[in-house]
Amino acid sequence: MATTLADAIWDRHVIERAGAHGPAGRASADLLYVDLHLLHELTSPQAFEGLRAAGRSVRRPDLSVATADHNVPTDGSRLPLADRAADRQLRVQIDNCREFGVELHPLGSPGQGVVHVIGPELGLVQPGMTVVCGDSHTATLGAFGAIAFGIGTSQVEHVLATQTIRMARPSTMAVTVNGALRPGVTAKDLTLAVIARIGTGGGTGTLIEYRGAAIEALPMSGRMTVCNMAIEAGARAGLIAPDDTTFAYLEGRERSPRGALWERALDDWRTLRTEPGAAFDREAVIDASAVAPQVSWGTNPGQTVGVDGAVPDPASFADPAERAAAERALAYMGLAPGTAMRDVPISTVFIGSCTNGRLDDLRAAAGVLRGRRVHGRVRALAVPGSSEVKRQAEAEGLDAVFRAAGFEWRSSGCSMCVGMNGDTVPPGTHSASTSNRNFEGRQGPGARTHLVSPETAAASAVTGHLACAADLPS
Amino acid sequence: MDPVTRVTGRAVPLDRGDVDTDQIIPAPWMKRVERTGYADGLFEKWRADPSFVLNRPERSGATILVTGPNFGCGSSREHAPWALRDHGFRAIVAPSFADIFRGNLPNSGLVPAEAAPDVVAALMRATTDDPAATVTVDVASRTLDCPAAGVRAEPFSLDDSAHHRLVNGLDEIDLTLALADRIAAHERTRPAWLPKGRST
Lengths: 474, 200
Hints:
The structure holds two protein chains of two kinds.
Chain A: H1 5-12, E1 14-16, E2 21-22, E3 25-26, E4 30-33, E5 36-40, H2 45-54, E6 64-67, H3 84-100, E7 103-105, H4 115-122, E8 130-133, E9 147-150, H5 153-162, E10 164-167, E11 171-178, H6 187-198, E12 206-211, H7 213-216, H8 220-228, E13 237-239, H9 244-250, H10 259-269, E14 282-287, E15 294-296, E16 304-306, H11 320-333, E17 348-351, H12 353-356, H13 359-369, E18 379-382, H14 387-395, H15 398-405, E19 408-409, E20 430-433, E21 448-451, H16 454-463
Chain B: E1 6-14, H1 21-24, E2 64-67, H2 79-87, E3 91-94, H3 99-107, E4 111-115, H4 117-129, E5 134-138, E6 143-146, E7 151-157, H5 160-168, H6 172-177, H7 180-188
Parallel strand pairs in B: 1-2, 2-3, 3-4
Antiparallel strand pairs in B: 1-5, 4-7, 5-6, 6-7
């Protein structure tokens, strides 16, 4: 029977099948080998403590890589931090990684950055792999044709101890994006439009394979943006079949194979495709040319419309639960039904995160900002996704463009995407943010988040209200 | 872990869909490095409203949360189940759960009971009307009972892996370590090009 890409990769990593009888009794789900375990400071301390308490070791420290991203200030601070709790957590991480022999890129080191940005940068994420991390946006890494998903801290401990994870095989979903995105429409707009279409639970229980001409046309940065938000559609993970774009990105990276091994790897990677005729459990088809720049109006990422649209009237939702959710969202957001999205005033702009903190994203935003100034009421932050992205951006002068426009040019970290490291949106005010979640309080208590692309964030910074790049006078 | 074969108690009805883990436990609580001590962070922002259901005195001591679809969406933080557990919850009944959260609950000894929407709606009504109404989540048989809602032996879904571990109180790591030989056998077949960290 023809096999999907997700199933093919899954099958390569099964150590024990659900239903099999082994030394521990009947297997209740598949036991899957983990090729790479990424770790950050927030979701790992309790896992290391668990190992210590049970007298266990890390089975494969050489398949584990850690960094500090969620808790790190982006103002250039180093340890000791004024935030005592954050300081303690970062020190605990340093001690844990030293004790258990795990590679760590701590605050202030050249390799530090958002975990989902540094993995690909180093060449650590390759086609056909299984990758896990105690972070839901691990889905980002499926862009390389890998199965990459987020796990909880107990599972982090399990992976540290065994290099495996016990999990029922997800079902499969195809999201096929035909045609081409219009000029000025980005991967972020596409991924938001997909969530608006299939819903926040539309992908639950599945591995989504994104395919079709519009996906194939995306560079790796855009593919990562698309897969990053698969979790926001409820999916376990998203993935995209590897192709020449993928291979060109990987060639020559620090941890990519070289010489004869590179050739062998390529031969294998080229076989990683969904076979013709393979059936998916669910399917959705999107016309790329119909996607406009997107802006969210509510408090979940499915509550999104085109920038030409307006805040919907909750009464327009037939489903009572959706209507109630829209009413709560509008109350939190302080928005009236029928308000044109372009009339929403913006006081904070955030460009960064694992969704849109890569060099291509900064280039796109800088392209909008060149020769323009941030509106007087707007505080705008540009936060590179990694220290390496920051260096590259500075080497091509992007920092000067952001600064000249009135942006703060920061050090890398999760920053305003997670609202716990000193970078927050003031209560009751609206942000245009390239991050992934517009949940209540996500960017700080009372913060009102509008999810947008880097181009739309930059344009909104200039106009002081939600706007797309095409709105700006040339 | 202690076995969990059945949870019986009063319930808190939280009639909202898409409740995300940022609401269950806000991110600043994740600066802690312990597995316990999260009770005060549970629904911290919503609890600032004195009329929020969790603040009602008649809901004190409830052990079951009845809620809407896609509960626990968003972040993978296991701090969310820890906060629910620290507050006293032992089971969550919902029409659907977000995937990662569903997997995290049993690892903290909590039961994710996914029931048919009409069954959840009946429980929601009955427990909203009568704070003293008792709900039973029978893990062993994977059924729900709530006499006040007219719900008797209604099935809920709980995957075999979670069921097995909850009912038997098993440590999953111990179970997997018993397969060390097979894990090692798989490792011998891994392609040579796969990347490595710089283990210290």
